[in-house]
Structures are given as C-alpha cells and as structure tokens.
Amino acid sequence: MTDNHLMNVYLPLPISLERGDGVFVWDTDGQRYLDVFSGIAVTILGHAHPAVTAAIQAQAAKLLHTSNLFQTTQQETLSDLLCRLSGLDKAFFCNSGAEAVETMLKLIRLYGHQKGIESPEVVVMTNAFHGRTLATISAGGSKKAQEGFHPLVSGFVRVPYNDIDALESLAKTNPNIAAVLIEPIQGESGVNVPAEDYLIKVRQLCNQHGWLMALDEIQCGLARTGTFLACQAYDVRPDMISLAKGLANGIPIGACLATEAVSALFKPGNHGSTFGGNLLATAAALVTLTEIEKSKLWENAKTQGQKLLSGLQEKLKGNPHVKEIRGKGLMIGIELDRPCREILMPAAKAGLLFNIANERVIRLLPALTFEDAHVNQVINTLPRVIEEFINNTKAV
Fold first, then answer.
1. Fewest beta carbons less than 10 Å away: which of 39, 88, 259, 288?
2. Which residues contact 139 (CB under 8 A, 6 or more apart)?
3. What does the angle CA 108 – CA 252 – CA 248 come to, to the nearest 5 degrees?
4. SS3 for 192?
5. DSSP code per residue over 346-371
6. Is 129 marked active-site?
7. What pLDDT sits at residue 193?
8. pTM of the model
9. Would you place residue 396 in the very low, low, confident or very high pLDDT band (cuts 50, 70, 90)?
C-alpha cells in the first residue's frame, strides 16, 4: 500500500477489489474470492444485482436528490413497504445505522420527558454495538470504541446481555428508565445469540413498567436470520427498530421504524436529515426489499444458514481451539481461543473473504442468495484454513 491522504482509522487488507458478480468478487490482479461477509452484511442480494443496477441507473438519469422540503413519492412507498413487512406504523429515513439509533434515542428522551422523568435513562447491554457517534458509542459496550472520547453521553444504564434477572432487578431500583435498547443478536461482539425466551421476557418487562422496547436490527434484520426481522421469530413487536446496512444493497440508507404512538412524539423541526431518504437511496432500497420479499430470501437464509452452521460444526468438532460455533440463519460466528485477525490473508489466498469480530470470532455474513455450492465451498475450505492458522499461532 502507498502513502495517501486518508485518515488512519482502518487497517485494510492489501487487497483492492475491482468488480463483483453475485457472491463473488475479483481484485485488481484478477484473483476471484467467495464473499462471505457482504461488506459487513450490506450487499445482501450479492454484487451487481441486475434489478438494483437498473434501478440506480434509471433514477440517476432523472433526479438524485431534492431534499425533504419536497414530497418524495418513492420515499412514501418505501415507508409503506417497510411498515407492512415489519408490523410497525411509521418510518424516518437517514443515511446510516448510527443515525437510525440516534433517532430512537431522541424519541426515547421525548417519551421520558412526556412521562415526567427529568433525566430519562436507557438500559443498554454489555458488549453492545450501536454505531460510532458519541451517543452510540456511549450506548455501546466497547471500551475500545469509547477510549479517548470521554466525557461520554450520559443517560445509559448497562446490564449483562441475555440476563433477564438483571433487568428485573434494575426495574425495582431505577425509576428513571424510559426504554431498553438491545440487539436481538449481537453482531460486532461476536454473533451472540440469546436464549429463546429472552426477547419475549424483555417485551413483557417493558409492558409491565411502561418502558419502550427499542431493537437495533441493523445487522441481524432484513431477512438475515430466517425471518424478515429477527424479533419476528419470537412474535415480538417492539416500539422502535433501527435498520440500515443491507437496506439498499450498498447505497447508504438507514431507517427508524416506530409505532404510531411513539412516532407522534416527533413534530416538524424535532429531527431531520439532508440526504436521508433521497431519491437514489430509496430507489435502491425499494428494489432491494422487493427482491427479498419476492424470493422470500429469509427462507433461503434459514435453510442455507443451517447447512453452513451444521457443516462447520461437524468439520470442526473435537478441535479444542474452537470454543464455539454459533449463529442463526446467515449470521454465524466461529470463536477461537486466540486473536485471529492474522487468519484473514491465508483465508483470502484460499479464496474466502470474511472478517473478525471481537478479536477472536470469525464472522460470516454472506449474501442472502447463497446456494449449496457456496455453502459447500466454505465448509470444505474454512476448517482447513482454521486448522493451519491454529498450528502456526499460539493462544493468548
């Protein structure tokens, strides 16, 4: 890599990707890779999807942006589609997942003040990740992401993830709670899947104490885990949901969905976004969601995800250095007994691209269009790469 004028906030691999087709990408040297993380759960229909490409080209030839000072018909259509698929009532469009979470946090503050709470607090989880703004790193549980950015935003109370008893205990002692913010499946901290009844019990507690239930489905939503939303597998309807990442298959867009009662807390001037829901982004999002629903890709994610999970568990069983293989749908984590970023280049040389979460977890987030052949390629290649990596490194 040569020196450049980019700020030093990433550690990119020495691979420059040039083009993609479906679940494969090629670098500038012509090397082909199976993409097993989709730009961190973003290109959920695969690369260069013809319907998405056509929608972007058609919209770019007409209008890219007009601002939210004018009505945008396709933004209204997108909100109708999202609300029908999610079961919620209203949508606000922004540009990223962090902005979608910020929108939820502002609604929570309004809700708490309406209830007469002078300083509303939000219950958040250990190891959570909600974005990179000051408020979202404050809500998140990553000390590394918070380091150097104090003073953090106040108003957050943290409890262990997947511990309903801790949440119940907090309810008895803290009268300032206005909401619970939670990822149905934690992604950045290593694909942590809660107990089957956890979200159900969180919903019950929220109902009991008059708290809002805010779900961050930025990574686990949009058909990735076997239902359109991860919470729908448990028949849980939250008060708010944040979405982003794969919503437009690579074009930046985020969304905060809310119930009628919660969304009514916003009045004109309370919130906004210059680029949020612009014509290009909503055109791409509309066709992305249409393709997901038309093909019921949540069913493919469930089927192929189970094949991938089972196949990897079978191939890696008995390996004492593989601590756990877990996940749901096409969201899978393989936890090793050591930091494993150094596995990325050997894996790339073997034709697989993925990334690492929480230093020790190989995170797989392939496109929802994964087929048997792609699943088999991962099952037949990744265990060998893991074993070679373990043989050449020491546990820390």
1. 259
2. 101, 105, 122, 124, 128, 130, 153, 156, 181
3. 100
4. strand
5. HHHHTTEE-EEETTTEEEE---TT--
6. yes
7. 98
8. 0.97
9. confident
Report the C-alpha gap between 336 and 325 in whole angstroms: 9
Asked about 228 being catalytic, the answer comes back as no
In the set 35, 93, 156, 245, the catalytic residue is: 245
Q: Omega before 151 cis (within 30°)? A: yes
pLDDT digit string (tens) for 101-128? 999 999 999 999 999 999 999 999 999 9
User: What is the SS3 assignment for 200?
Assistant: helix
Which residue among 37, 92, 93, 129 is the active-site one? 129
* Alpha-carbon gap, residue 291 to 293, rounded angstroms: 6
Q: Which of 37, 156, 216, 302 is catalytic?
A: 216
The type of residue at 317 is K
Q: Rounded CA gap, 315 and 190, in Å?
A: 20
**pLDDT above 70 coverage of the chain, percent:** 99
Structure tokens at 99: 């902005």
The two three-digit tokens of residue 158, written as one number = 């943290």
Angle at 225 between CA 11 and CA 334, to 5 degrees: 50
Whole-angstrom distance, CA of residue 357 vs CA of residue 334: 10
Whole-number Å distance between alpha carbons of 189 and 359: 9
258, 96 in Cβ contact below 8 A? no
Residues 6+ apart with CB under 8 A from 26: 17, 18, 19, 20, 32, 33
- How many Å apart are CA 221 and CA 240, to the nearest integer? 13
**322-327 and 332-336 beta bridge pairing:** antiparallel
* C-beta separation of 305 from 226 below 8 A: yes
Other C-beta atoms closer than 10 Å to the C-beta of 351 total: 16
Model confidence over 336-391: pLDDT tens digits?
999 999 999 999 999 999 999 999 999 999 999 999 999 999 999 999 999 999 99
Q: Domains of the chain (ranges plus CATH)?
A: 17-49+296-392 (3.90.1150.10), 51-295 (3.40.640.10)
143 is catalytic: no
